[in-house]
Amino acid sequence: MAHITVSVEYGIHSLLWLVGQEGKPLSSRKLAELSGVSPTFLAKIFPKLEKAGIVCAAEGVRGGYELAKAPQDISFLEIVDAIEGEKPLFDCQEIRARCPLFGKGPPAWATSGTCAVHAVMLRAEKSMREALKSQSLGDVAQAFGRKAPSEFWAAFQTWLAHEDDPRSGKPASTQRSKGRRAR
Amino acid sequence: MAHITVSVEYGIHSLLWLVGQEGKPLSSRKLAELSGVSPTFLAKIFPKLEKAGIVCAAEGVRGGYELAKAPQDISFLEIVDAIEGEKPLFDCQEIRARCPLFGKGPPAWATSGTCAVHAVMLRAEKSMREALKSQSLGDVAQAFGRKAPSEFWAAFQTWLAHEDDPRSGKPASTQRSKGRRAR
Q: CB-CB: which of B4, B95, B121 is closest to A4?
């Protein structure tokens, strides 16, 4: 399994659908359908994003999730940490203390400070985390937005309206049609 | 399991014992004992390091492994790649192509180039790999060497000599006593 798992991938792709949907929450079921991922799997991810303050939940018939802050203020690092939890790149076993030459126990000089091998891994992890921190959900939403034609966003609004009122098979509201979105 | 596993940790700590041992190979059994790790586990790691050109094997009674090049020329990235193989930080599932709004298949604009989410992860991986590449086995050996007192290296040479001639219970050769080493 990759270090940054499919849970993060599902989470980010679903969050992207919430960009530009301020005040119009989407259920995790709808988000799962839009991203083509498992709804039960996604339903376990969104409570973690809510707990981390990335999304907030709206109750009621038209309930669901919306972004809790501006997409430019949501870093990839924040999303990864929210979904994966504390997950070090390297889990130091303090091998340095095991040398048989130390006899009954390692001397202070051998175990003081951070193990030099561990220190290298911590620097690599820091570099990775800084790169994730430097990119936001807003950055990626803009990249998608630049590629998608206006017809796509129109189709998205139509889909949302149909989803709202499945009994009629027609859009329940035209308020959702707001044209091109930033995804 | 951490992304950079215990195999890498065992491998690096064992490689450190080979720094300064040019021309005097050590068996993976001895290296395992010095690092306090499983000899059968380590015996599976060293052939990977040999294949990657990090160590070379010497046959015969006094056989074993020695570094194939200067420790300053062996980067942490090289060791990690040799032991872990190709192991991406993030395994993109091309979620972007699954959107039901695309109908029978995604249009070219939706799947051209690298997925923007994947691109962020690739930048994070590149940062991590650059940090691992910037540090060498020699750098860490020097850090250990600065901490260890001369008595420790004398004890190491005595241990090696005893190990060479277990029947006598005494050092088989004084040639190995070369004083302070760079670990």
A: B121
